[in-house]
Amino acid sequence: MWTIRAGLLVVATTATVAQLFEPPKKISNPCDSTKQLLHLKEQLLAKATTNGAQIQAALLKVAQLQAAAAAATGDEALMYAALAAGTGAKVSQAIEQSTDGVRRLASAAAASAQELAGVQTLLTDVAALSIKPMAAKQLSVSGPANGKHYIRFASTGATYTTCEPQESTPDNRQPDQNPDPANNVLDIFFLKGRGKAGPDATTALLCFHNTNTAACTAASANQNTYGELTTGKPLDLTKAQAKTPISGTQKFTITGGGTSNLLPPQKYVEARLATLAEGISAYAEMSFVADNLETPEMAVATEARLALLKALDPTEDVSKLSDKATEIDGQITKLYGKNGGEVKTRVWEKFKSIQIPKEATLDNKPTTLNKLDDLNKLWFVASFHKAKPIQETVARVHQKETEKNKNSGLNRKTRRKERRG
Length: 421
Hints:
signal, 3 domains, Variant surface glycoprotein, 421 residues
C-alpha cells in the first residue's frame, strides 16, 4: 500500500468534493479509467473559471459601492464608503487565495489528470500487443530460416479507438453498487510481466517440445526437438485503486497492482497523484462567492470599523479601534442596523437605483448605478463625483475673479467720465 500526501489540511464538505469526482462506476479497463481522469481534469479547470467569475463579480460590487459613496453626501456617503472598505478587503484576500489556488488547479489538471489519462490510453494499446506466432519447427533438421527467428508484434494500435473513438460513443459503464462511503476512488491500471494466471496461463510465449502436435500447452522439460513461438501477450494489465478521503487531509492511498516492476513506474504515478491531491485541496478551499459580500458580516468587518473610526475622528490612531468599540457599534447600528442586520435593505437593495447624470458616464447618457456593469464605467463615475467639488470650487473662484475684473473696469470708466465732466 502506498500513501501520497498533499501536506494540506482541508475542511471540506462531502458535497463540495463529490462534485469533483464523477459518480462511482464500475471500471474494467484503462479506457474506463481515462474517463474518470478526464472528468476530474474538466472539473478542476471549471473551478478555476468559476472562481475567476466570482472575483470579477465581487470587484464590480466594490466599485459600485465606491461610486455610490462618491455620489452621495453625509451619512449616506459614509454608509457606502465604510462598506466598500470591508468588502474590498475581503475581495483582496480572495484574489490572493485565488492566485495560488488556480496555479494548483492547473498543475493538477495538466500534470496529473491529463498525463495519467494519456498513460492509461497508451497502456490499452500496449496491453493488446500480441506476438506474431512461429509455427513448430523441427530444430534438429532445419529450424527457422538461417537459424534465426525474429520476435515481432502481430498488431499495434489496434485498440486505440476504444479510448479515443473517432465519433462520440455512449458511456456504457454501469454504476458501482457498492461505492466506498468514505473515499473518492480512481482506478489506475499498470502493466507487468506476463503472469502464470489468466488467459495465457497454459500457453508459454516460447517453448520446446518433442512433437509438432503437442503445442506449447503440453511442453515439458528436456524436450527440445521442436520449437514454437506462440501468439500470447507478453504483458498483463493489473488494476490498482487510488483512494482519497471525501473530507479531511487530502492524500491518495494506493492498493493493489504491486509495488515493483510496473509500467508506468511507481514513482511516476506517486508524483502525479501528489500534485492531484494539491489540486483537490485547492478545489475545496476556493469557496469564495460574490453574493456573500452582501451579508451582515461585511458591515462589521475590521476594515469597515476602521473606516468608521476615521470618520468619527480623522486624527485617531488605528490602534485605538478597540477603545472606540462602543462608538463604532453605534455608528454601525445607525447605518446598517444592529450588528449590520439591515445592510441588505439599507444598502444593497437601495444604492443600485442611484441616478447617474450623463456628465458622469462615458457614453454621455444618464443611467442608474445598477446598469453600470463595467469597472471602467464605475471608476469614471467615482472620479467624476470626487472631482466635482474641486471643479465647483475652481468655478466659483473663476466667477469671483471675473466679477472683480468686471467691476474694476466699470469703476475706471466711471472715474474717466467724472474727470471729463
